Amino acid sequence: MINTHILGQSAEDLAVEYLTENKVRVVDRNYRTRFGEIDIIGSDSKQIVFFEVKAKSTSDFGKPYEMVTAKKKRKIISTAKSYLLEKKINPEGSDWRIDVVSIDYENDQIEWIKSAVTDK
């Protein structure tokens, strides 16, 4: 049986490495509030980017990014806004987005889906 916590931590480490190689500056990890958790927070040029990392060791039941449900999206949006407010950044007047990093261990693939979660 695969320990999902270890798989998740390993996936986040791999995602940080991948994002850094792709010119993302990682500024925080595992930011938690009462709303939920953001796996990785970074900046891509001048934009703040919140990253949800999803990983699967098997392709059974779909792709990793398909595990980001509507409920999870609402939690990520609330948590991202909380982070911005904590940093004294107006969520309505600033440039930010939420991306998903999907890691498929079975096929050895990483997929970066920009603006995967929107507040609209």
What is the spatial order of strands in the main beta sheet? 1-2-3-4-5
Query: Mind telling me which CATH architecture this is?
Result: 3-Layer(aba) Sandwich
pLDDT under 50 segments (min length 5)? none
Note the run of SSEs as H and E: HEEEHEE
Overall pLDDT score: 89
Ends apart, CA distance between termini? 39 Å
* Silhouette: globular
Oligomer: single chain
Percent range for helical residues?
25-40%
Rg computed from alpha carbons, rounded to a whole number of angstroms: 14 Å
**For the record, what CATH class applies?**
Alpha Beta
Give a verbal description of the structure.
The longest helix is centred in the first third of the chain and has 18 residues, at 4-21. It is built from two helices and five strands. It has 120 residues and is α+β, with helices and mostly antiparallel strands. It has helices at residues 4-21, 70-86; strands at 25-32, 37-44, 47-56, 96-104, 109-117. It has one domain (4-117): Trna Endonuclease, Chain: A, domain 1. A five-stranded mixed β-sheet has the order 1-2-3-4-5, sandwiched between helices.
